[in-house]
Amino acid sequence: MNSVILRVGTRYLAGLLLVFSFYMMLRGHNEPGGGFIGGLTGATGFVLYAIACGTQDARAALRVMPQTIAIWGLGIALAAGLFAALFGDALFTGQWLFIGATEDDKGLPLSSVLVFDIGVYLVVFGSILTLVFAMEEEI
Amino acid sequence: MAGGFPTDTRGNGIVGVIPVLFSAALFVYFASLMPTIAATEVIRMTLPWIPSLGIELAFLVDGLSLTFSLLISGIGTLVLLYSNTYLAGHPQYARFALFLTAFMVSMLGLVLADDLILLFVFWELTTLTSYMLIGFSHEAEKSRRNALQALFVTGAGGLAFLAGLILLAAATGTTSISGIIAQGSALKEHAMYLPILILLLAGTFTKSAQVPFHFWLPNAMAAPTPVSAFLHSATMVKAGVYVMARMHPAMSGTDVWLWTLTIFGAVTAVFASLLALRQTDLKQALAYTTLMALGTLTLFLGQESGYAMTAFATFLIVHSLYKASLFLVVGCIDLSTGTRETDQLGGLGRIMPITAVAAALAALSMAGFPPFLGFIGKELKYAGAIAVASEPVLVAGAALLSNALMLAVAGVVAFRPFWRGTVPSSQSPQEAPWQMWAGPIILASLGAIFGIYPDLLQVALVAPTVVSLTGEVGEVKELQLWAGFNIPLILSVATFVLGLVLYARHVQLRALLERGFRAIPNLDKGWDKFLDGLKAFAKWQTQLVQNGKLSSYLFGTFLTIAAGILLTLIYTGMPMIAVDLSDVEWKHTSIALLTIAGALLALVTNSRIAGIAALGVVGIGIAMIFIVFSAPDVAITQLLVETLVVVLVAVVMLRLPSLPKAEFRLNHALLSVAVGASVSLILIAVVSSPLDLRLTEYFEVTSWPEAYGRNIVNVILVDFRALDTFGEIAVVVIAALSAYALLRTTRKGDQK
């Protein structure tokens, strides 16, 4: 599709979507969002980019092959699940660390659950882009 | 065929040495348990495995399992030592050693397991590893075929075996084998006794190659000779015998047990000995004598008397020792001369003296001459046969005939090639290196030592094994070389006479048998036809179900959905449906109308882009329903997926020609109405019945305190049900990669 308006708009939209997708993922534990939704949003940004500027540009912008991203995501999710074994818990038990926690404030919570969600994000993101890029290129 | 032993007898370096040391260590460990077991105690070891199902990693060492363990690890050590030279410098020796060691460990697990499920796991592991071993020379078509045949026959039996084990566990309420045996005769009176017995025996008879399932075993000779030695002496085929022996206390004593085992055993023993005499290939002849041994062991397990059990335990050991030894000798002959055909062998005794001694010792034990253990085994066989209350003549007759034939075969295999005729000029045989004669000599000498000092064996192994078999102490009979003038002795003498006559006339007999057996249908010949038929059926069936037309797949899928739901609703009784429309608001109605309009447009349009857009409308309508009923996460996901699907479909669709004019298809219309109606009905039924809110409440209460999250949907996804999510994302990755691979291959295919 060769539209200047779309191309210029995409420059900003794709970036915004990517930032927004991280936001969606991070807020997911307490508000609507999460790794699945975040991954879908991020993928939408790149799909838009691919439609406007072609898959070659989109691949170049992504730098890494989308399949690689998906597989890394799966590995990260698995690692987050196995992490519980270090503390003698069952597989995929969430491990939490509250930085700077006080009596009534939980501080900054860090958890293996978040790592797992990042894995989910990468899997969804990478898988969808694998499919879309391949379809755009092959058909 | 190139003869000769490997010139480099150092073997295969560390890869060859480690398995030998490993199995030797196992043997030493099991040997150290002998004093405990000789005192008729048992050793148990239990680890929790699947506690929720009551399944444990339970191991039991008693007389029976220790006897088997010693045979497996001992013969395993010698076979591995032998293989290291036999296959010296083989490029895939590491693989071979791995398979053989894995096979040995599976077999040990099988005989030590005290839990039905554990037993089955090891049972199947022996099937798989033996498949690898039989098909080790995978370049040969015949090798692959025979390996597959062994896998299929024993695998099919394994399925029946599994069914039998499950029934057994259900009938007795435990998967513990000692637990089942402790229940005494309760199982024999159980209503499921007969089905359990038939299924278990289907498994053990195929594994232990009883007629008519015997055909895979001689074919398994495609394996390298050390594998055959191991498979035939202590492992694989003995697995079936082991299971029958293990189940003996709990299941024997009924008429069905007695007659099934007696008849199958007797037929196999006689039939196999006749077949053995017919062979001209040394290895094939030995293979059939294994069948004979298996038949005899099964025959004894059919009985209950102390004589029969003692005979079983003794013959089990006798057979393992001489059979492993003879197979290894045949391997030496094969390498030395380049052939295994009896007609082309002779005069090897002077050139290969050590091998010849090993062969002679083993063969004398096999033929049952005094003072070898084989003699005691044979005497016990006759004593056991006479002790059979019901049919002593049948059992003793079968034993006599098969023993006489055994003697003749022993002569053909181990006497004739060494001490008759001369070496053909085309061969230049030499003595085997020590690694290859050590095994045969040790095993064959044990047969002689135990024959002269039967008490060694009696106390250490036979007595505890008989205790395992009968469940009672004191049933075991004395092992004696000289038991006085009695019927067994007379039968022994008759065996020698008959056997020597058969040996003297074996060439003429062979021709006679050749003619006779041609008349008998052979399952092996039908095997390939059966397999071809199966393949043709699979092809026909695949073409029927997967015809490549997307519309017919969809038709089948939706038909199944509609039929499944409607039939369920009809059979469970249609619930009372009271549709209450009073709280429907205008926004609900308008969303519904929008969705319906989208669906209708998709149905009638013949523009692809309009169709895609119309489907997008339907999807967004559904997302709006989620928003209205406060499921924002689901709504967001639905919206995003809908967007991406429209893009994806558009990418494909816009390249296609415009839709043909929509035509009306009655069956499609009826199906879509049926699917819509059935799904609506079931949804209404679900909504009108009271919702079980326990899970919802549980997550509402625990989400924050336990998982520190307020968004329940996400907390469930990443914490409570993280394993499910992991499975799902794994599926996503696999689907994406498969689709990617498919798209790529298509393009390459086009370029050709």
UniProtKB/TrEMBL annotation, chain A:
Residues 5-129 form the Na+/H+ antiporter MnhB subunit-related protein domain. Belongs to the CPA3 antiporters (TC 2.A.63) subunit B family. This is Monovalent cation/H+ antiporter subunit B. Signal peptide: none annotated. One of its GO terms (cellular component) is plasma membrane. Its main location: membrane. It is found in: Cell membrane. It is a multi-pass membrane protein. The chain crosses the membrane at residues 12-29, 35-52, 64-88, 108-134. Keywords: Cell membrane, Membrane, Transmembrane, Transmembrane helix.
